[in-house]
Amino acid sequence: MMMRTLVHSLLSTVLLIGLAFAHELFGVVTVSQAQEGKLVITGSSTMAPLLLEIGKRFEANHPDTRIDVQTGGSSRGIADTIRGLADIGMASRALTPEESPLHGTVVAYDGIGIILHASNPIQKLTNAQIRSIYSGETTNWQRVGGRDAPITVVNKAQGRSTLELFLQYFQLSNRDIHAHVVIGDNEQGIKTVAGNPNAIGYVSIGTAQYDASHGLPIRLLPLQQVAASIDTVRTGIFPLSRPLTLVTKSSPTGLTKTFIEFAQSSRVHDLILQQYFVPLQN
């Protein structure tokens, strides 16, 4: 009997060690955190501040639940969801056909806008001029009607959906871009342009409008003669807009479904508007 107990104990220990090793090596999640009253949400830096606020309100209504929001870009959100490292991924774009096995739920809309320093006299740029600046053909503001000063090109890092949509819209590849500064999230881009009168960048319209209204010296440029604002995104006339999507491995259930439904509801419209995004129409 003693020998049988010892063998059983040894087998249990080996199993636990094996599971721990598998978790470290392969990122295997053996127990759904959603079942334990915790949701892990990772991905888009555009969406992270909004989901943090939605998470706080959800926790207030569900005291036994914890919402853990982590940034890192839309690609991380997609990858973490596939690997089971996140209950929900954040992607500031629509899912691609290749990602169709995943389940996407839109919670709001945003646009991508070109930003300059507030002191830059340029009031508009054509699509061709923007392509020329980002491809390195135009290197001085004087060539597009500005002052005699070198242009500092600020680009997004790979894996960011903002970069993917920018390249697609302007018919560029990442190899075409001649960047002086490569940034990760929107706030880095905005602070870079705010600190450099000769810089140009592109970021979330919602984030840019929010920061400009709170005193940062940046200005959004129109695109194809359409003002870059949440109003033009809301009406659908701004040419470079995108859905803000919550991604799950399959159709959401349980706590995950409850949270996503909450994030889609009118109960968080004020939070969406505070972040200068466009809420869903009821």
Shape: elongated
Number of domain modules? 2
Structural class by sheet pairing and helices: alpha/beta
What is the number of helices?
10
Features of the shown structure:
ten-stranded mixed beta sheet, D-Maltodextrin-Binding Protein, domain 2, disordered N terminus, alpha/beta, 10 helices, elongated, 282 residues
How would you characterize the overall build of this protein?
The protein is an alpha/beta fold and 282 residues long. It folds into 2 domains: 34-109 and 243-279, 3-Layer(aba) Sandwich (D-Maltodextrin-Binding Protein, domain 2), CATH 3.40.190; 110-235, D-Maltodextrin-Binding Protein, domain 2. It has 10 helices and 10 strands. The protein has helices spanning 2-26, 48-61, 74-83, 127-134, 161-170, 186-194, 205-213, 230-235, 254-264, 269-274; strands at residues 38-43, 66-71, 88-91, 103-117, 152-156, 181-183, 199-204, 218-220, 241-248, 278-279. Strands 1, 2, 3, 4, 5, 6, 7, 8, 9 and 10 form a 10-stranded mixed beta sheet that branches.
Give the SSE map.
Layout: H1 2-26, E1 38-43, H2 48-61, E2 66-71, H3 74-83, E3 88-91, E4 103-117, H4 127-134, E5 152-156, H5 161-170, E6 181-183, H6 186-194, E7 199-204, H7 205-213, E8 218-220, H8 230-235, E9 241-248, H9 254-264, H10 269-274, E10 278-279
Parallel strand pairs: 1-2, 1-3, 5-6, 5-7
Antiparallel strand pairs: 3-9, 4-7, 4-8, 4-9, 4-10
